[in-house]
Amino acid sequence: MRLLLTFLVLMALPILPAHARTIVDSAGRTVEIPEDVNTVFAAGPPASILVYIMKPEALTGWPRALRPEERDYIAAPYRDLPETGRLTGRGGEANLERVLEIQPDLIIDFGSVRDTYIDLANRVQEQTGIPYILIDGRFENTPEALRILGEALGVPERGEELAADVKATFARIDAILENVPEEERPRVYLARGPEGLETGMKGSINTEIIERAGGRNVADDGGATRGLVQASMEQVIVANPDTIVNWDPNFYDKVFDDPLWQGTDAVQTGRVYLSPTAPFGWIDRPPSLNRMMGLIWMAGLLYPEQWQGDLRDDTRAFYKLYYQVDLTDDELERLLEWAEGRPPL
Predict the structure, then answer these.
(1) Fold identical between 2-170 and 180-339?
(2) Rounded to the nearest 10 degrees, what angle do helices 311-321 and 291-302 cross at?
(3) φ and ψ at 190, to 5 degrees?
(4) CB-side neighbour CA atoms (13 Å) of 37
């Protein structure tokens, strides 16, 4: 196996492009990339969505093959791209042999730019000879992430178009929140999984959408804990959210009849909402550009009078601009059944 990897690396090195340019990624790394980037290996699911939205013809494959219920919401030419595995995150199963077999012009990761990911990018780039850039996946950085990727992939106009759309959505929400004091904003709990007891602490990448939409994440210990945690039922009852968002139909099906969950304001007032998940989750799963659709949805949930949006129109427009699909009426209705608490079977 070691000999095979060495052979593949040696085979890869001579075909690096003669004409190259440099780009500074979100980690401050100066990376030499080809003048024309035609193929990209996505290091994980967030990166695959980002690349697909920006320049779908460059994506060499999905880290996980699309499921049947997701396919209608991706443009037809890209539904059958091969499964490539992933280089980063939980369950990373792609290996360097696979990357070298694909021979992409560029590797992209979208998410954290902490030292762990910088070290991985440097190591993979050194071992394969393939340039590897890191793009900051924090929600607030989304416009800049789009600009960086648009420039890297040779489609700066597309990057600017999407960045402007994101900034407009952020500005629309900010205008609403200017008139809503922090203490009057909805208390929101993200209920992950079939039991609803996995959640994301305030400030985590999994719950940025709550805070950006103007909700107060009740999973807040003052910043002592970040990321996903397992909550107890007692903690949820004490936090007493007035709004619960979830993407698991198993949880949604039973929460209103569960005597423990009935102790929360959210269940008592019927403010438990099920997020659509096709082709990607609206809340996270993964935390990428798909969250922009969830942000629009959640702003409408939390501030329906001020937002004054039409979810059907907003969804159709988003899927056209970002996922490059024209939804039929049937596809739109099937998608929004989730948001109405009726996940399609």
Answers:
(1) yes
(2) 170
(3) -90, 115
(4) 32
What DSSP character marks residue 81?
Answer: P
Q: Of 117, 46, 76, give the one whose Cα is nearest residue 292.
A: 46
Residue 42, phi then psi, degrees to nearest 5: -85, 125
Q: Which of 184, 185, 240 is nearest to 214 (CA)?
A: 185
Host H or E run for residue 245: strand 243-246
CA–CA dist 266, 192 (Å, integer) = 15
Q: Exposed, middle or buried: residue 116 (CB in 10 Å: 0-12, 13-18, 19+)?
A: exposed
Say what the alpha-carbon torsion angle 52, 58, 60, 64 is, to the nearest 10 degrees.
0
Per-domain boundaries in the chain: 2-170, 180-339
* Averaged pLDDT, groups of 10, the chain, 345 residues long: 49 55 97 98 97 98 95 98 87 74 97 95 95 97 98 98 98 97 97 96 93 97 92 97 95 96 97 95 94 97 94 97 97 87 62
The residue type of 241 is P
- How much is the pLDDT for 107? 98
Number of Cβ within 10 Å of residue 325's Cβ equals 16
- Tokens standing for residue 218: 């009740």
DSSP 8-state code for residue 261: G
Query: Does the pTM of the predicted model rise above 0.85?
Result: yes
- The answer to whether 153 touches 37, Cβ cutoff 8 Å, is yes
The CATH H-level (homologous superfamily) assignment of domain 2-170 is Nitrogenase molybdenum iron protein domain (3.40.50.1980)
What pLDDT shows up at residue 288? Answer: 97
Which residues, listed in sequence order, are joined to residue 244 by a DSSP beta bridge? 189, 272
To 5 degrees, how large is the angle CA 171–CA 172–CA 176?
A: 110
DSSP code of residue 49: H
Looking at the chain, how many residues does it have?
A: 345
Beta bridge partners of 23: 31
- Coil/strand/helix, residue 191: strand
Name the superfamily (CATH) of residues 180-339.
Nitrogenase molybdenum iron protein domain (3.40.50.1980)
pLDDT computed for residue 90 by the predictor: 61
C-alpha distance from residue 31 to each of 75, 106, 164 (Å): 31, 10, 26
